[in-house]
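Lecture 7 notes: from sequence to structure.
We start with the chain below.
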Amino acid sequence: MTQKNQKIVITGAAGLVGQNLVVELKEQGYTNLVAIDKHKDNLAILQKLHPEITAIHADLAEPGDWSQAFEGAHCVAQLHAQITGKFRDLFDRNNIVATEHVLNATKAANVPYLVHISSSVVNSVADDDYTQTKKLQEALVVQSGIKHCVLRPTLMFGWFDPKHLGWLSRFMAKTPVFPIPGDGKFMRQPLYERDFCRCIVKCIETEPNGDIYDIVGDTRVDYVDIIRTIKRVKKLHTVIVHIPIGFFAFLLRTYSLFSKKPPFTADQLKALSAGDDFSGVDTQAVFGVKQTPFEEAIRESYTDPKYSHIVLKR
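Predicted structure tokens for the same chain:
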């Protein structure tokens, strides 16, 4: 069992999950946190919010002194991942090579426990670079010989989000017209980030061995109704317009020609409309985490006075 004063190393700590996890760990009394991330600006945001933690700027795909931070650690929370990108080598570098380095550092330092954040896409019908490399990444963890557990979340939303629902929320606030692909009736199971982080902390605390948990948002809701909920909670007057899905995909592909980091890609549109229906564990029974009602979670995500205005850089 991980004690509140024992060292916890968090990789990918300046990303969406990491930022929320640090908030949750601190709220639950954990005091010895080491945050590693290669994104300098987002790491600066994390350090400004939490000056007492140890923040290390490092690219995990490159060997380096960052591995020394694993010495004396009791747990590693492995969060780093390449989620979007136009080229396969980015996914291989950040989901495979970086993970190999982290696992090697974990074993070299004899860290007794690791929590790995995978993704529900490993169970998806989608077949893209993200899905393929997340499957390979998870296999590396399972085969590592390190005592571990694996958590597979569905699409997440919450504080700090530069992509996904966070980007859609900000875009909706700026534009008089909001485009929806097709009829927008693509069922989603969005997972509130704070609920997910409470599940992670429970795993850090109890150290389940070899267990794999599918963590799914309790609410099944169509994409168009997610957009309507955000519009209602933020009290926006944006007009929602439906666009044929083929033309919508064309617009995304065109946009990607001019953007190095498109917030929404044609592959993600394909995954959105793939028809996945995930099943997951009862988070209250397994982790003692009762999930926040969807509209309440949306309201907290996008109207909270302390964190909702902070957006990570991409």
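Points to note: The domain at 7-161+189-219+277-294 is CATH 3.40.50.720 (Rossmann fold). The first strand starts at residue 7 and ends at 11.
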